[in-house]
Amino acid sequence: MIATPPLEARRGFELTLGASHRPQTVRGYLEHLDVYLHWCGDRNPYVRDTVLLYLTDVGVRCSRSTLATYHKALRAFFGWCEAEGVCANAMKGIKPPRLSPDDAERDAPVYTEADRAALLAVCPPWTWMGLRNRALILSLWHTPLRASELTGLLVTDVDWEGMEITVRSGKGGVRYTVVMPVEMAEAVHRYLRRRPTEIEGLWLSEKGTMMTPRALSLTLKRLAKRAGITQSVYPHAFRHRWRIQCVMMGMTDVEIASLMGQRTVRATQGYGRKVLQAQARARYRERLAG
């Protein structure tokens, strides 16, 4: 007999996560947990056999990287269950899938200067929202900021004298600083002068509140449609593009990792790896032919 109903356990897990994790992280864990609980149906979700059956089923239908995300969410949930006395840790001893660099890398679209120009062209400079969207695009183009980091910036995070922006708490709580090129700084400053409401946050939404990561994604989607760009346009793909640009500039992985707010060099190497491999092969062929 199950002592604690799964939905009550989920609620307790959510409250604990909310006390120490970012909202986006909490949503991700809960979404994966909800899929598991729905899959269980009449099965007991707290026993090891059910977990193994579920992970086997997911492994058949999904990629190894997707399986790893489900494994991570369940490991966190059952760790909480064990600590709270809900049940024994059904994930204990179940190892996560090993991911090769190809498994770990997401095939992000590569944006060109023409794509950038098309996006900027649909941002009318005579409206404050057009100026905001222009500043957002240039911020994504010139920095490696994640969506949550960009939308979470405060006006006070911008150092106009040093031409830098400080991310107070990035992924994993990492604090790091990014360079703000003149083109980006000019666009951000012009937008701030024209926005109709003064708030603590750097990016103002249509509702007069701080912009959210979801709002940023939807904004990019709308702009891409207006610009006639057929490939997906989303915030994290700009981060891939930025890393490729740094490699082409001759920067080391250690330097790039520090600028991207990464704790390890290995994490950084997953960005744009396939594009860089293709460029390396093309360069090798050129040298062979020459």
What does this structure look like?
This protein is mainly α and 290 residues long. The protein folds into two domains: 6-104, DNA polymerase, domain 1 (Orthogonal Bundle), CATH 1.10.150; 113-235, hpI Integrase, Chain A (Orthogonal Bundle). Helices cover 59% and strands 3% of the residues. The protein is built from 14 helices and three strands. Strands 1-2-3 form a three-stranded antiparallel beta sheet, with no helix packed on it. A hairpin with a 4-residue loop joins strand 1 (158-159) and strand 2 (164-167). The longest helix has 21 residues, at 64-84. It is globular. The mean pLDDT is 87. This is Tyr recombinase domain-containing protein. Residues 106-285 form the Tyr recombinase domain. GO terms for molecular function: DNA binding.
Beta-strand percentage?
A: under 5%
Would you identify the CATH H-level superfamily of the largest domain? Intergrase catalytic core
The CATH class name of the largest domain reads Mainly Alpha
- Quaternary state reads single chain
In order across it, which strands form the biggest sheet? 1-2-3
Protein name: Tyr recombinase domain-containing protein
GO molecular function, one term: DNA binding
Domain Tyr recombinase: 106-285
InterPro entries: CB, DNA_brk_join_enz, Integrase-like_cat_sf, Integrase_catalytic, Integrase_recombinase_N, Tyrosine_recombinase_XerCD
